[in-house]
Amino acid sequence: MASGSASSADVESAFQKFAVHGDPQATGREMNGKNFAKICKDCHIIDGKHVTSTDVDIVFSKVKAKTARVITFEEFNQALIELAPKRFKGKSQEEAVQHMYGLVAGQDPANAGVTKISKVGGVDRLTDTSKYTGSHKERFDESGKGKGLSGREEMTDNSGYVSGYKGSGTYDDKVNN
Asked: Per UniProt, what is one Pfam family of this protein (predicted)?
């Protein structure tokens, strides 16, 4: 599952990647509770049986400073040490901590499956403009591109002719003859 020993640098680089995830102002030296929960979930520290998201939140509150809202890398290590015996029952403390480092080392925040395009039921049918009828049909051209304002509102003809007049544009020809 996890390698026997993971270097501290790999664990620290994973910490920094998760610390800046979703926060453009983050420096990477401190991690908030949301990102701590994310690193625990993405690295499979939360397994649903021995370690739950509640356990992770409790450990985060325990290791951070009383008034702080973030943890440093040292406090992150302390949190991993606290969670290790729960996650790897039956192993020695050192062995469990090494397995925890193995889970975290070299991991990146996962973005897969965060937002998916909906393809449920009749979405394709509902968004196919070639099947539109009535007044909605007037809103799109043959290629399915929207016409904008001219497709939604009745545009007035400011040519000076009465609507329905068949000889529009012939005045100049009659006068000049």
From this structure: p25-alpha
User: What SS3 state is found at 36?
Assistant: helix
Closest CA to 20 of 6, 31, 9: 31
| CATH dotted code for 8-104 | 1.10.238.10
Per-residue pLDDT of the chain (177 residues; tens, 9 = 90+): 444 456 788 888 889 888 888 888 888 889 999 999 988 888 888 888 889 999 999 999 999 988 999 999 999 999 999 999 988 888 888 998 898 888 888 888 877 655 666 666 666 777 777 777 777 777 777 777 777 776 666 777 677 677 777 777 777 777 776
How open is the CA angle 57-61-63, to the nearest 5 degrees? Answer: 115
pTM of the model: 0.59
DSSP H stretches of helix in the chain? 8-20, 33-42, 53-63, 73-87, 93-104, 123-126, 134-137, 149-152, 171-176
Residue 71 Rama label (left phi>0; alpha psi -120 to 50; beta): beta
